[in-house]
Design a protein that fits this description.
358 residues, alpha+beta, binds adenosine monophosphate, globular, 13 helices, 5-stranded antiparallel β-sheet
């Protein structure tokens, strides 16, 4: 959807009945809750077998739109319905994964966020290149077939929640592992795998929000992912580890809250501003709303960013009632879901809705 058709589309919208729409997954409950807190109508789009679950929260939902398959989101009648309801769609971490890239970026409904970023996010390489352009410290990257110096993690394209990733110590291990993934049909080619230096330290994920209306980056929270089996291996006494033939895996099962040393915050906020600037320069108009930088903090306190997400991340679900950081900005319980709705509300009040949708 081009900028002009988004502007045309919003012109037909009833701004007094604006609805915030979301797919039934990921952080939908938080987004719906936040939208209601800010006085918006809400639309929950979901497949049939999740309807009964979301009906338990029907006080958060003004309209249910039930589809057979997620990809039906882009069906003409569904799009028409969403527009009739004056819906602004809020993409979350499952959005592209569920409906597919073509539908996700092409849908003829205004999106709160930066639509062209979806395509960048689909490729690990393009993602890392954007982080480098931002001047953010990232792990070393290796080409397929290149000699490896130290330990590497091999990561796959698409939001797979860490599934299929593996660690390797040599060029041979990398090549063997990638060939196996190709033969199992997990990836199409070696180009879908990113070979990255494995950074030793502790993981930390930062939840940012860029407000085009207030012209500032807010640091709204931080979390740690709880990943199996890498986090479980900490429970095994080191002397027993050598008897176990287990390779760490990185499948996400949940998130834990984190507050950071305050002396780290200036750097982390600076990274947020750098990222926003890089998106503005490379993908105008630049990021809108929530994004996340994912890092390892080394023991020299260097913050190395190995990944980003251009949308609301599931770790924000910890803070449905606000986080220690969002409270400092807003002095009221402010989840990222609610912050999205607040931004849309501010945009409507200032007649700047076209600045927050693409
Ligand atoms: P990702 O899909 O990029 O978020 O990675 C999944 C998990 O793999 C992360 O949460 C980390 O635990 C781990 N990981 C990814 N990249 C690196 C890296 N370069 N160094 C160390 N751990 C990493």
């Amino acid at each position: 959807m081009g900028k002009s058709s988004v502007v045309e589309c919003i012109k037909d919208y009833d701004l007094d009945k604006l609805a915030i729409g979301v797919l039934g997954s990921h952080s939908a409950l938080q987004i719906l809750h936040g939208a209601r807190k800010e006085g918006f109508r809400t639309v929950l789009i979901t497949i049939e077998d999740r309807v009964s679950f979301y009906r338990e929260f029907k006080h958060l939902v003004s309209n249910f739109v039930v589809i057979k398959r997620w990809s039906d989101l882009c069906r003409e009648d569904i799009v028409r319905k969403l527009k009739e309801l004056s819906t602004i769609l809020v993409p979350h971490g499952s959005y592209v994964e569920y409906v597919g890239l073509e539908c996700a970026e092409g849908i003829d409904v205004p999106i709160f966020g930066l639509r062209p970023l979806f395509r960048v996010e689909a490729s690990q390489r393009r993602k890392m290149s954007l982080l480098r352009k931002a001047g953010i410290k990232v792990p070393r990257e290796y080409n397929y077939g290149e000699d490896i110096d130290g330990l590497v993690i091999v990561k796959l394209d698409g939001a797979k929640g860490g599934r299929g990733y593996f660690l390797a110590r040599s060029k041979e291990e990398v090549v063997r592992g990638i060939k196996e993934l190709i033969s199992r049909g997990v990836i199409e080619s070696y180009e879908n795998a990113l070979i990255q230096e494995y950074v030793v330290g502790v993981p930390a994920y930062y939840h940012y929000f860029y407000s085009p209306i207030l012209g500032r980056v807010e640091l709204l929270g931080a979390d740690i992912r709880y990943e199996t089996s890498v986090d479980g291996l900490k429970r095994v006494p080191p002397k027993l580890l050598e008897f176990m033939e287990v390779e760490p895996t990185f499948v996400v099962v949940g998130n834990l809250p984190l507050v950071l040393r305050e002396s780290l915050l200036p750097k982390i906020l600076d990274y947020g501003y750098r990222f926003v600037k890089a998106t503005q320069e490379n993908l105008p108009p630049g990021i809108i709303g929530p994004f996340c930088l994912e890092s390892i903090i080394r023991d020299d306190l260097e913050v190395v960013v190995f990944e980003f997400s251009g949308r609301i991340v599931a770790g924000t679900n910890i803070y449905v009632n606000g986080s220690p950081y969002s409270y400092l900005y807003w002095d009221e319980p402010m989840s990222v879901g609610r912050r999205i709705a607040r931004e849309i509300k501010l945009a409507v009040e200032k007649d700047m809705l076209n600045k927050v949708v693409t």
